[in-house]
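Aim 2, interim progress: modelling of the oxa(dethia)-CoA-bound target.
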Amino acid sequence: MSRIQAAITGIHGYVPEDVLTNKDLESMVDTNDEWITTRTGIKERRILKGEDQGTSVMAVKALEGLLRKTNTKAEEIDLIICATTTPDMVFPATANVIANKIGAVNAFGYDLQAACSGFIYALTTGSQFIETGKYKKVVVIGADKMSSIVDYTDRTTCIIFGDGGGALMLEPTEQDFGIKDSILRSDGSGEPYLHMKAGGSRRPATVDTVNNGEHFARQEGAMVFKFAVKNMADIAAEVMEKNGLSSDDIAYLVPHQANKRIIDATARRMGIGDDKVMLNIHKYGNTTSGTIPLCLHDYEHQLKKGDNLILAAFGGGFTWGAIWVKWAYDPK
Ligand code: UT7
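Predicted structure of the complex, ligand included:
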């Protein structure tokens, strides 16, 4: 009998309506459209506004679309894994909030936090539950409301991040499709360069932590850039080499959208042209766990059964990873 593989059988993304453009940011901090565009590739990003609106709001919208597209009832879902760095609350897990809102009464769920590599980690984890043969419908979500932890007086971070997310369905197949291989890495010595200092158990919220701006994401951009360029490119090339894939075999690179220059370096290292790179950073900025599912959503109609995709990400931790996916369906 052939091995059970975890096939992606549907994808759907969601971004909120409110747009924050580079022009808008010019009136908030000392920056300009030209600097942001040339240094990052970002033109605008989406912001989730309104009282009591958390990451689950976007995840539920994405999941509703996914269930529609895959003709699935919420009760059929076995497991929901939500990759996020901006959960609705510290606990309970946002995956449980999502399950409750959508009526996934037979699912268990949990969150996974690996910063910008969260979706890659969650997809790898979710695929194992299918490959064991134990579960039939696993939903993997990547969503973040980065605007909830961005300091809009800090020009080094506020130009980068946006809100959004997506959800995909994993189901078993005995055909040669699905999550073929993945490589995941982390290095905790990256902590000083990209983190949110307070709000965890080490520095719980106090008046001082709030006044000192310690509940915002902070990064040493140039340092993170240096690690990201090398590691994301290396790991994408490594998963190809390990599986004997040449650049001609690859239909698309699906890169985490943190900076267009990091994406370009990864594509160069893989030996593929711009036409094979999924790109939407100009529209959404860096949505952390949301970038890869949002790319798959935007390019879904161009993907064909059997296409080889390389998903790659780098983020806080540091964390990084790459996945080889063989796409399982033609455009519907
Ligand atoms: O998502 C996962 C992890 N995150 C990333 O992968 C992000 C990685 N880092 C980056 O994408 C880039 O480092 C940034 C986009 C954050 C910054 O670009 P950079 O080319 O590395 O700029 P820099 O930090 O080296 O700063 C260069 C100059 C500095 O001015 P001086 O010291 O040369 O006078 C900054 O103060 O640019 C200045 N600067 C800005 N100028 C206009 C920094 N931010 C801005 C800004 N507008 N928004």
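The two ends are 30 Å apart (CA to CA). The chain has two domains: 5-176, 180-326.
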